[in-house]
Amino acid sequence: MMPSIASRLRLALLMFFGVYPVITLYIYALFPLTTGWQMWQRTLLLVPLMVLTMVFFVMPFIQTRFGAFITGRKPAAAA
Fold first, then answer.
1. Which residues contact 20 (CB under 8 A, 6 or more apart)?
2. Nearest-5° Cα angle at 59, 38 to 13
3. Which of 3, 25, 40, 66 is the most exposed place for a label (fewest CB within 10 A)?
4. Is the dihedral of CA 29, 27, 51, 6 positive or negative?
């Protein structure tokens, strides 16, 4: 079943709130250490860190905490 446009927009919104602080933190941490590097070298270091952080930390957090919001369903009642 294809996800609706609304659920994709909700996921995109949550991903924005997950990606923005992580990438900002990485830029502040890495760029002073890579002064003098070409931009492609900096991004070659930044992108794998960002992808791993998203796949192993941010996306699982978003899916478990906001899954019902993304799909537009009411959250399951706690047992």
1. none
2. 85
3. 40
4. positive
Per this entry, what is the length of the chain? 79
Which of 20, 29, 9 shows the shortest CA–CA distance to 58?
A: 20
Q: Quick one: tokens of 13?
A: 């919104």
Calpha distance 41→4 (Å, rounded): 38
Contact status, residue 54 vs residue 65, Cβ threshold 8 Å: no
Number of Cβ within 10 Å of residue 17's Cβ equals 11
Considering the entire predicted model, what is its pTM?
0.76
Alpha-carbon distance of 15 to 20, in angstroms, equals 8
Task: Determine the Cα–Cα distance for residues 18 and 60; give it in Å rounded to an integer.
Answer: 11
